TrEMBL record:
Keyword terms, alphabetized: NAD
Pfam families to which the protein is assigned, alphabetical: GFO_IDH_MocA (PF01408), GFO_IDH_MocA_C3 (PF22725)
Protein name listed in UniProt: Oxidoreductase
UniProt organism field: Arthrobacter glacialis
Domain of life: Bacteria
Lineage: Bacteria, Bacillati, Actinomycetota, Actinomycetes, Micrococcales
Length: 388
């Protein structure tokens, strides 16, 4: 398969999972509007054609393409690759507005071109194993999901570049939270229909050390010594996104969920608690060797040992082995079609929840209703995007 990549920046490492000449796929073209992105691509994939012209890529007869641009350009590019008939991998989130996300889905539906969204956490061991426990009936019917996201690297990851600006991300509740909102939906078996939220720029807005970092990459400034948060340096000149957010969701199957995100904690991990009619599960750590604990027995003496512990598996490649599985599934889908663990409908649902939650927290925190997709689009994507 002849694969193209648009955008060779933060998620460019996926090229390693795609470029396997002699094993079924190779990156033959990279398109990036930045000189540095093109230089990086040329150094890493010497045999690929490097261009700044998207039209050149669209006309190259590719078998598939990965759209890895900054989030607010996903629709701008993906709509064109889909119209060109190229099976398209779009990095999560679909885009930073609901209108742009819906434009991608509508174009995929109208053209019949296969669309895949890069929600790699659906392949992460901690999430897969928690879902396996739920699907097996271990805790009964899911009634509540709580997620606490401790973003210990938030200052370095999100407040020194384009992520810090609403114009590029809408909010970090959407940009960073799209993963977790999708996981909440997947574990609970439903999508958000009503959402409310609160949030604040509580710490980083008061930091006066600012710098235009467009000449640098994260590796140039990242350090665990950048602590405490209020003493960070060289933050983005514009910071108008929240560094702490909390949202509550009512799902269409009646389950309730909450998501909390903080970018100035010292630790960096996600904690999911899922409560059902017969027990609950909770992960303690989210990497290989950490554990998922299961409680099925009633008690009244405070914390008690779980009835079962499940060790989180390991895997080769990024995100606990999720990235190789993600790309393998996309390439198979682009070539042959069929069912996938990821879902464009689910990807849109996470964007919708994040966008509406942002609107809520920036107003009075009231509940907002998520607009529904046209029934024909839902049916098409739920059927696995059958040939049209």
């Amino acid at each position: 398969m002849r694969i193209g990549i648009v955008g060779f920046g933060l998620r460019a490492s996926l090229w390693k999972q795609v470029h396997k000449p002699g094993q079924g796929s190779a990156v033959v073209m990279v398109c990036d509007v930045s000189e540095r992105g093109r230089a990086d691509a040329a150094a890493k994939i010497p045999g690929a054609v490097i261009t700044s012209d998207l039209n050149e890529l669209l006309a190259a007869g590719l078998d598939a393409v990965l759209v890895l641009t900054p989030d607010n350009r996903h629709a701008e590019v993906a709509v064109q690759t889909l119209k060109a008939g190229i099976p398209t991998f779009c990095e999560k989130p679909l885009d930073v507005t609901l209108e742009a996300a819906d434009a991608i889905l509508s174009t995929a539906f109208e053209t019949g071109t296969r669309l895949y969204v890069g929600h790699n956490m659906r392949h992460m061991p901690v999430v897969v194993q928690m879902r396996e426990l739920i699907q097996s009936g271990t805790i009964g019917e899911v009634k509540a999901v709580w997620c606490r996201h401790f973003v210990g690297n938030g200052g370095d990851y999100y407040f020194k570049d384009w992520h810090a600006e609403r114009a590029n991300t809408t909010s970090l509740l959407l940009q960073k939270g799209a993963h977790d909102i999708d996981v909440i939906h997947w574990l609970a078996g439903g999508y958000t229909k009503r959402v409310s939220a609160i949030g604040d720029l509580a710490v980083y807005g008061d930091v006066t050390s600012r710098r235009d970092n467009t000449d640098r990459r994260m590796g140039d400034w990242f350090s665990l010594e950048n602590w405490p948060p209020a003493e960070q340096t060289d933050l983005n000149p514009i910071i108008d996104v929240e560094d702490i957010s909390m949202m509550q969701m009512v799902l269409d199957n009646g389950a309730l969920a909450s998501y909390q995100q903080c970018h100035f904690t010292p630790d960096y991990w996600r904690n999911y608690t899922v409560i059902g009619t017969k027990g609950r599960i909770e992960n303690f750590g989210d990497g290989p060797g950490d554990v998922i604990k299961v409680w099925n027995t009633r008690s009244q003496n405070g914390y008690v040992a779980p009835d079962m512990e499940v060790e989180i598996r390991d895997g080769d490649g990024g995100h606990g082995g999720a990235d190789p599985l993600l790309i393998a599934e996309f390439l198979r889908f682009a070539r042959d079609g069929g069912a996938t663990e990821t879902s464009p409908i689910a990807a849109r649902a996470s964007v919708a929840a994040g966008v509406l939650a942002t609107q809520s927290l920036r107003s009075d925190g009231g509940a907002l209703t998520v607009p529904e997709l046209p029934a024909e689009l839902v049916a098409y994507f739920n059927a696995g995007q059958p040939a049209r």
